[in-house]
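Q: I'm building a small set of examples for a reading group on sequence design. Run inverse folding on the following structure and report the sequence directly after it, with nothing in between.
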């Protein structure tokens, strides 16, 4: 499985949910830029609606949708049960349909084992908690899924296990954590924690498969892979500020007071507060600190939140509420300049490039894509080198120095990779291995074909012929 356009791997679930690609749904990160408000906002169907494919299943299809990340509540005509936020890695609130399902599950299975993400610097204690919660959540969610399988026969059941994902970010290795105080036994346990999580996930899958009806079709997938965190994205904000000021700190746009305070607080302090606040409160804080993030009257461009690649936004007049860069020649010249500046970045260790490509989003989704105004203007993709241990970055305007002895600020030793995988079996599913990767946008169309529902025109994908008996994908959309 792969996702397009390349460079947007932070949030791949909306493509699966909607059956549409990025230009149509616009959800590329959990926080998006609101051009009208000149601030960041958490993605929310109230201001950026999306239509999940299950809204077109029809009342005759009985569905169970369990912890699909970033899934909005289903409409009134939905026939089935819906659970969100039980053990999802990403915070998108917690709710269920019917409303009394959540308290019922808590009574039967206990409170959710997955707690809010421990983002930021890691040590032995936080990694131990990440390991414990990952394994506990996989085991607990297996019981939840088996509970639903035992209740009735479903036409469609989608269940997403988030524990292995969380562990992949923080337990991939010990390179980005301070484990100097770990005893030998604890160190061995943590060094094997990610493999332990994957073994637990495999065992969970086996139990679920064993509980399925013999004639069931089964699709197991991961929308992206996981690998070592290259880490350059964690210095993207500093690089953007350095390039904007052309290496002169006094020329950088002035930051707002709330934003300065936020950045000055140690991560350990911040997460003690944010992990205890309701998700709705955390979401409301984002516009507060980002609305006056910078002096917009002097800011031509700025970095957006990232976790893998770099996302850069031009403060464009006529599009952004306080934009100052004129469309046309000035905008195009600025993109050319920024592309050259990013491609010139070099690792001070060995003078090798750290940027492999700079993509214009207009080239990726089209200038007239429905949700283009919510997307960045440039995507900076890194080379296969790693920021860990680098003393700094050479730029066209001087050097950005790094401390090679410090772990990455996020504490994430693992991060997303472009290619995921899927395995399918059941009636009509072909044998063998596909020769080429498939786009994830085709998965919801395939599920609709399995459910016997004709796909609507808005779905960009088609049923995968290898999974639906050969030629079902040739039928036109409804």
């Amino acid at each position: 499985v792969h996702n397009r356009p390349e460079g947007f791997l932070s949030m791949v679930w909306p493509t699966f949910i909607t059956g549409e690609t990025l230009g149509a749904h616009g959800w590329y990160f959990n926080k998006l830029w609101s051009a009208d408000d000149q601030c960041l906002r958490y993605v929310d169907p109230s201001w950026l609606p999306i239509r999940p494919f299950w809204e077109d299943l029809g009342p005759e299809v009985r569905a169970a949708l369990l912890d699909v990340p970033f899934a909005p509540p289903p409409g009134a005509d939905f026939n089935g049960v819906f659970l969100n936020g039980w053990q999802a890695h990403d915070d998108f609130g917690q709710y269920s349909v019917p409303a009394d399902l959540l308290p019922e599950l808590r009574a039967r299975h206990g409170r959710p084992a997955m707690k809010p993400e421990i983002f930021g610097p890691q040590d032995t204690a936080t990694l131990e908690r990440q390991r414990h919660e990952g394994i506990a959540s996989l085991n607990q969610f297996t019981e939840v899924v088996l509970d639903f399988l035992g209740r009735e026969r479903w036409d469609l059941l989608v269940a997403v296990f988030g524990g292995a994902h969380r562990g992949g970010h923080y337990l991939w290795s010990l390179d980005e954590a301070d484990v100097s105080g770990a005893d030998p036994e604890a160190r061995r346990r943590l060094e094997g924690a990610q493999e332990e999580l994957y073994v637990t996930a495999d065992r969970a899958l086996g139990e679920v498969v064993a509980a399925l009806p013999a004639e069931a079709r089964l699709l197991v997938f991961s929308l992206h892979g996981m690998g070592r965190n290259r880490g350059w994205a964690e210095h993207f904000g500093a690089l953007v500020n350095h390039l904007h000021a052309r290496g002169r700190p006094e020329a950088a746009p002035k930051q707002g007071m709330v934003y300065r305070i936020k950045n000055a607080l140690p991560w350990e302090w911040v997460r003690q507060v944010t992990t205890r606040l309701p998700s709705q409160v955390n979401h409301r804080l984002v516009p507060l600190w980002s609305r006056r993030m910078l002096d917009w009257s002097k800011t031509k461009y700025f970095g957006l939140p990232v976790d893998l690649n770099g996302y850069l936004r031009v403060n464009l007049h006529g599009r952004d509420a306080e934009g100052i860069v004129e469309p046309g020649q000035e905008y195009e010249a600025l993109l050319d300049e920024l592309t050259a500046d990013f491609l010139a970045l070099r690792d001070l260790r060995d003078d090798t490039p750290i940027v492999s490509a700079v993509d214009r989003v207009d080239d990726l989704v089209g200038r007239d894509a429905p949700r283009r105004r919510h997307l960045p203007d440039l995507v900076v993709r890194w080379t296969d080198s790693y920021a860990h241990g680098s003393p700094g970055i050479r730029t066209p305007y001087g050097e950005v120095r790094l401390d090679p002895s410090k772990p990455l600020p996020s504490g994430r030793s693992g991060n997303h990779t472009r290619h995921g995988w899927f395995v399918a079996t059941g009636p009509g599913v072909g044998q063998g291995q596909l020769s080429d990767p498939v786009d994830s946008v085709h998965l919801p169309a395939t599920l609709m074909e399995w459910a016997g529902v004709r796909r609507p025109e808005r779905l960009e994908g088609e049923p995968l012929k290898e999974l639906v008996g050969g030629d079902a994908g040739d039928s036109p959309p409804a």
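The longest strand covers residues 355-360.
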